[in-house]
Amino acid sequence: MPIAQEPLSVEVTLPREDVALLTVEGYLDVDTATEFQHHLANQLHHGRRHFLLDLSAVPFMDSSGMNIILRVYQEARELPGSVHIISPMSAVRRILDLTGVSITVPVSESLDEALERVDRLPEPPAEPEA
After folding, report:
1. How much of the chain, in percent, has pLDDT values that exceed 90?
2. Counting runs of H as helices and runs of E as strands, what totals does the chain give?
3. Where does residue 22 fall: left (phi above 0), alpha (psi -120 to 50 degrees), or beta otherwise?
4. Nearest C-alpha neighbor of 14 from the set 38, 57, 50, 58
5. Which residues pair with residue 53 across a beta bridge?
6. Which residues of 87-126 are buried (b: 16+ CB within 10 A; e: fewer)?
């Protein structure tokens, strides 16, 4: 008999026009990663450059979840933009640290700290006028 799993819940709010806060709840694994990726892709499509991922209610994340975070990190850097992880639970933080993801993607303890990191980023160069 398969183990019943909590569905993934992703709530998207916009603290600023170009910043998407994704509050994730549940297991972020091979079964739920596609849904998480759809939320991120939707925000990229709508012009968001900075992604704040609140993982405080994610008790488990496997390589599928990490791969999506790294993929959006790469896409955001090209914009240029950024990705920040907020308040991961201890088991998730351990995986982020062991795999080196936390070296690449900044981890903040609060939304305010993540927004301060966004504010410290250099502004993208202005588009040349035609």
Report:
1. 83
2. 5, 5
3. beta
4. 50
5. 22, 85
6. bbeeebbebbeeeebbeebbbbeebeebbeebeeeeeeee
Question: How far are the Cα atoms of 13, 43, 111, 122, 130 from residue 17, in angstroms, in the given order?
Answer: 10, 11, 16, 17, 25
pLDDT tens profile 23-68: 999 999 999 999 999 999 999 999 999 999 999 999 999 999 999 9
Question: Contact, 79 vs 124, CB < 8 A?
Answer: yes
Joined together, the tokens standing for residue 63 give 């390589």
CA angle, corner 116, sides to 115 and 121, nearest 5? 95
Task: Tell me the whole-structure pTM to 2 decimals.
Answer: 0.88
Q: From CA 116, how far away is CA 40, in angstroms rounded? A: 21
Residues in the chain: 130
Band (122; pLDDT cuts 50, 70, 90): confident
